[in-house]
Amino acid sequence: MLSKIKKLCFGYSPCPNDTFVFYALAHQLIDTAPFEFEIQHHDIATLNHLAFDRMLDLTKISLFTYGHIRQSYALLPVGAALGKGYGPLVLTSNTADRDPAKWKIGLPGRYTTAHLLAHLWNPEMRDPVFLPFHRIITELAAGRLDAGIVIHESRFTYEKQGLVLHTDLGCWWQEMTQLPLPLGGICVSRTFSVEIRHHLGALIKDSLEYAYDHPQESLDYIKQHAQENDEIALRQHIDLYVNEYTKNLGEEGIEAVEFLLRKAQKLGLIPEFAIGLF
After folding, report:
1. From residue 172, how far is each of 90, 120, 230, 269 by CA, in Å?
2. Could you tell me which residues are beta bridge partners of residue 82?
3. Of 36, 51, 148, 273, which residue is least crowded by CB atoms under 10 Å?
């Protein structure tokens, strides 16, 4: 039985899709008993590293990272970020070489799914530059990078910086696999019982439902953490990545996650685990 108060450390990114989904939970606008949450906001690369060190009880995580730490964390079927026909954008400067193998390319973290996708899309990629996700656009616009992979709401405003869309990796992925592109998910320490994991999943679902029922209420919170203040861009980002798979991965979402992880395993990029996703 769940009775005693449990204090949990919950980490998620400042991206609009996360702050939208978890606004109600973070502000206790839903009944979170018997849990109290210490909320930490970090870019996805930092969240990945904290999960490697088992510093978070509950966290948003790149699915590439999940492939490395599956023994320690269980995936939840709610709260995930998948794109169907869209995903991280490969942006270039106007002066970039036509050959991607020659690019100095910025990526938002070594263990991000964006890095895995870049490796799959361009196996000849050389010496990627790992940067906090919010610096990639700046470095690219300043000419210090030839290309960069963008994972946040700047996907809707990059043209203002004079940048060029080369490839939408979500579109590329769907053409190759006929599956949605799994980018990130919510995982919980396997030290917690299955009962607790299910209860946490239910709370996230309640928080998501609150967000849908009160779409304007979280706007100030979203803007406080976002990289862009353009409300239209924020809403577009939320509409893309808070979708049917966020509510529940379902059979297609699970198939997509398992396919991505098998692909990484075959290339020796993550270890093989016999343990299930959940």
Report:
1. 11, 11, 27, 20
2. 182
3. 36
How far apart, in whole angstroms, are the C-alpha atoms of residue 262 and residue 23?
33
Q: How many helices (H) and strands (E) does the chain have?
A: 11, 11
Q: What's residue 2's pLDDT?
A: 63
Annotated catalytic sites, by residue?
152
- pLDDT for res 156: 85
**Domains, the chain, ordered by start:** 6-82+180-266 (3.40.190.10), 89-177 (3.40.190.10)
The answer to whether 64 and 145 have CB atoms below 8 angstroms apart is no
Per-residue confidence (pLDDT) for residue 58, from 0 to 100: 98
Tell me the C-alpha distance between 125 and 116, whole Å: 11
Residue 44 CA to its chain's centroid (Å): 7
Q: Which H or E run includes 167?
A: strand 164-168
Rg (CA), the chain: 18
Please state whether beta strands 35-41 and 6-12 pair in parallel, antiparallel, or not at all (unpaired). Answer: parallel
User: What pTM was estimated for this model as a whole?
Assistant: 0.93
Please list, in sequence order, all residues whose beta carbon lies within 8 angstroms of the beta carbon of residue 44, skipping any fewer than 6 positions away: 13, 15, 60, 61, 62, 108, 109, 112, 133, 151, 184
Judged by DSSP in three states, 40 sits in strand
Length of the chain: 278
Centre a 10 Å sphere on the Cβ of residue 254 and count the other Cβ atoms it contains: 18
The predicted pLDDT at position 6 comes to 86
